[in-house]
Amino acid sequence: QNLRILNEVSYTIFMQKLKIMLDVRLKNYKNLLNFVVERTEKAFQELLEHRGYKGFTEFDHKSQKLTIHVNSLGDESECKDTKGLSGGERSFSTLSFIISLWQSIDAPFRCLDEFDVFMDLINRRTSLKLLRDFAASHPNEQVILITPQDVSELNSSNDVSIFKLENPR
After folding, report:
1. Which N-terminal residues, if any, form the signal peptide (predicted)?
2. Is residue 37 helix, strand or coil?
3. CB-based contacts of 57: which residues, under 8 Å, 6+ apart?
4. Rounded to an integer, what distance in angstroms lies between the CA atom of residue 32 and that of residue 11?
5. Fewest beta carbons less than 10 Å away: which of 134, 137, 142, 149?
6. Distance CA 100, CA 46 (A)
7. Following DSSP, what letter does each residue of 60-129 receive, concatenated?
8. pTM of the full structure
């Protein structure tokens, strides 16, 4: 009888402690999530500024949706979904968002394939500069860019290696 009561008390105490630990973990998770969202939003806006764009993101965690709003004319009150942008503007905005996410995530490799195929020359130059700056500020990570475009403006150096494939016959 006493052993059964002791087991029930131990079980109750254990469950209470388990709930407290779960609540702490959930609170820490929400704090981390909010931190990543705020950091990503700030970095995204700063990256858009390189082209004079304005924009913001909407993270809806309940429905697991992300909406990116950008105005390429620099007027934040008229930001629209990226579907209303040109191909180059949309590609630059998407790249800006990806780089802003990268700043919150540790990874040994960052890879982008054909990130610049719809970009005009100005958006492409700005994008390459942003990617180069990101790579320079993260020397322990490798950034791999795959593109069919000309990369002659990126010079090889100690921290940049360029591999060019032969043109197809």
Report:
1. none
2. helix
3. 40, 41, 44, 66, 67, 68, 69, 97
4. 31
5. 137
6. 9
7. ETTTTEEEEEEETTS-GGG-EEGGGS-HHHHHHHHHHHHHHHHTT---SEEEEESTTTT--HHHHHHHHH
8. 0.82
* pLDDT > 70: percent of the chain: 96
Burial pattern 99-137, b for ≥16 Cβ within 10 A else e, equals: bbebbeeeeeebebeebbebbeeebbebbbebbeebbee
Question: pLDDT tens, 58-90?
Answer: 999 999 999 999 988 866 567 777 888 888 899
Q: How many CB atoms sit inside 10 A of residue 167's CB?
A: 6
Using CA atoms, how far apart are residues 76 and 16, in angstroms rounded to an integer?
Answer: 49
Instruction: Tell me the residue type at 94.
Output: T
Rounded to 5 degrees, φ, ψ at 60 are -110, 95
In angstroms, the CA 30 to CA 37 distance is 10
Angle among Cα 67, 112, 59 to the nearest 5 degrees reads 15
Stated length of the chain: 169
